[in-house]
Amino acid sequence: MNKKVLTELQQQLLARQSELSQRIAEVTTNITQEHSADWSEQAQERQNDEVLEEIGNESRHELQQIHHAIERINNGTYMLCSECGADINPERLKAVPYTDLCIKCASAAD
After folding, report:
1. What is the pTM of this model?
2. Domain coverage including residue 29
3. How confident is the model at residue 49 (pLDDT cuts 50, 70, 90)?
4. Torsion of Cα atoms, 94 then 72 then 18 then 55, to 10°
5. Is position 18 within any domain?
6. Are 98 and 73 in contact (CB under 8 A)?
């Protein structure tokens, strides 16, 4: 993979990292807001909190994957499968820039 494409992928990862950090902050703010005094409103708010909590969990998980991908770029192992050590296809990295598995190992994991 040429340096330009690698730089573009790193910038894409950093932009997504920023988006996710902002989303997590917004979710945290929304969940910690005080609930209504009305019982029926509270029930709806608690359901909303559960949805927001799941969005936050998914965002944190993706953020961890992005941090790991950036570390791999910095230490020169970004294009190598963490399972078998083979090269990860550049097209796969463009599609899923935080992946650390080649298509063969990713298919085996499913």
Report:
1. 0.81
2. 3-78
3. confident
4. 80
5. yes
6. no
